[in-house]
Amino acid sequence: MSRKMSRRSWLKSSLATLMAVGITGRMEYVQGRNHAFSRSKSESNKSKVYYIKEISPENLVRIYHALGRNAEGKVAIKLSTGEPGNTNHLDPQLIKDLVQQVNGTIIECNTAYGGGRTNTQDHLRAAAEHGFTAIAPVDIMDADGEIPLPVKKGRHLKEDFVGKNYLNYDFTIVLSHFKGHPMAGFGGAMKNISIGIASSGGKAWIHSAGKTKDVVEVWNNIPPQNDFLEAMAEASEAIIDHVGDKILYINVANKLSVDCDCVATPEEPKMNDIGILASLDPVALDRACIDMVYNSKDEGKADLIERIESRNGIHNLEYAEQLGLGSCKYDLIRLD
């Protein structure tokens, strides 16, 4: 895709691709706001982001413990089970040790587009085919409906609609596959807690920046790109306000396709794997992943950078920082 392609052209192209596979100045930490990332500061007053280059089950457990925050009570593991046909999603054998160590339940919500995960029965079938039900229980949280969570600072959203069962959990591990995305530019921790935890109707609500919850009508109500990115950040705010410090974030930056795991036939990755990154600050975590893409010597990074820039993906993090959800300034702590 040309970097000069208009927003209308890439949006039309993105939606066509999705339909083809069945998918129709920075602020510092806001004082007094008890968000999880406030406890992740280093001596330099920057958020801590931990990094291990080698991707392995042992290192996934190791980086979890490095965060110093124990997942206790009924633990939700938020990840993408992947659209049927997609092979880029997280490998269940990679995450098995961590998921079982915390006795976690994998949580998901149904999608807002056609495909293999629009209803609970099909979604559970996809999760089984991809090997997730073999390692842990899988809860499709909006199987029995949704609940609203308030968005206190939103200019697009006043409520975020999430799967009803999300209220059943005491702690959330946000376990994300970092990669590109046809509409958001990239997908990481912030996308995983916004669109990922949203109910089917809630996903439409975010994609339309608060215009509709209708999963068909949403595609006729696509807002300006920055409004969509800001709506994602506002949905993230609702989750972060709800959980307080009962959350942590891990990104696995591998199989770096320009396409999301929601695409059944994604573009092949052109860039080599980066590693595992983790933080208590989701903004810093996603920013660190993006910086590692840009700073890589891997020539294959060009496609992913073009995808991020053509969608203005970084605006999601800039706006989230303005909302006080985290910081784009961080210290990278290498564990290998």
Topology:
Blueprint: H1 7-20, E1 47-52, H2 57-66, E2 75-78, H3 92-101, E3 105-108, H4 120-129, E4 138-140, E5 146-150, E6 159-163, E7 171-177, E8 179-181, E9 185-187, H5 189-194, H6 200-207, H7 225-243, E10 247-253, E11 275-279, H8 282-295, H9 301-310, H10 314-322, E12 330-334
Parallel strand pairs: 1-12, 2-3, 2-7, 3-4, 7-10
Antiparallel strand pairs: 1-11, 5-6, 8-9, 10-11
Helix pairs in contact: 2-3, 7-10, 8-10
Could you explain the architecture of this structure?
The chain is of the alpha/beta class and 336 residues long. The protein has one domain (7-334). It is 33% helix and 17% strand. It has ten helices and twelve strands. The chain has helices at residues 7-20, 57-66, 92-101, 120-129, 189-194, 200-207, 225-243, 282-295, 301-310, 314-322, and strands at residues 47-52, 75-78, 105-108, 138-140, 146-150, 159-163, 171-177, 179-181, 185-187, 247-253, 275-279, 330-334. It has an eight-stranded mixed beta sheet, with helices on both faces. Strand 8 and strand 9 (185-187) form a beta hairpin. Helix 8 packs antiparallel against helix 10 (314-322). It is globular. The protein starts with 6 loop residues before the first helix and ends with a strand. 55% of the residues are buried.
